[in-house]
Amino acid sequence: MTVRLARPADLPGFLALAAEVEHWFGPMVAEPGFHRAVVRSADRGLATVAEDDRGLLGGLLFGTDRARPARHHLHWLVVAGRARGTGVGRELVTDALRRHVRAPAVVEVVTFGADHPGAVASGARVFYERLGFTQAEAADPGPEGGSRQVYRLDLA
Questions:
Q1: What are the phi and psi torsion angles at 121 (to 5°)?
Q2: How many Å apart are CA 129 and CA 2, to the nearest integer?
Q3: Which band of pLDDT confidence, cut at 50, 70 and 90, is reported for residue 135?
Q4: What is the pTM of this model?
Q5: pLDDT for the residue numbered 118
């Protein structure tokens, strides 16, 4: 597996990943805004992918709060079904933190609320907790109407 900065040409791979999780996150594949976000993030060096000889294993979109430069966001992280539980997600997050974050800083991600069907099935909440993120406040519901929660990582 190789982890590298994404390129705009990786958009089809991001769309394939998005297709796997639209039932949890809501529509993305046909959404021009999602396409623009992927390409813009890749152009800015804020998108990362993990790949093997069969294609993308995962993708991550990262961002920094312009008003508060020590506050960062994992905007989108998806690991292909065939690669879940193999360390791909951990490698993507580790790479993003290494590239973009200097302590002291805070990194936030919005994931499924505890009552969301994807909370257990995706393993997202446990995944972030294993990386040291802690549960924080509730977030606005997702585009499909499901509950969401902020997880926060404080880096001293």
A1: -60, -40
A2: 24
A3: very high
A4: 0.94
A5: 84
**Mean pLDDT confidence for 77-86:** 95
Other CB atoms within 10 Å distance of the CB of residue 75: 16
Q: How many whole angstroms from its chain centre is CA 131?
A: 13
The backbone torsions φ and ψ at residue 61, rounded to the nearest 5 degrees and listed phi first, read -115, 130
Q: What is the full DSSP assignment across the chain?
A: -EEEE--GGGHHHHHHHHHHHHHHH---TT-HHHHHHHHHHHHTT-EEEEEETTEEEEEEEEEE-SSSTTEEEEEEEEE-GGGTTTTHHHHHHHHHHHHH--SSEEEEEEEE-TTSHHHHHS-HHHHHHHTT-EEEEEEPPPTTS--EEEEEEEE-
pLDDT single digits (tens) 43-53: 999 999 999 99
Nearest CA to 25 among 72, 96, 75?
75
Copy the structure tokens of residue 37.
């976000």
Question: What is the total residue count of the chain?
Answer: 156
> Bridge partners of 47?
61
State what percent of residues in the chain have pLDDT above 90.
85
Q: In sequence order, what are the residues at sequence separation of 6 or more whose Cβ sits closer than 8 angstroms to the Cβ of residue 7? A: 42
Round the average pLDDT of the chain to a whole number and report it: 95
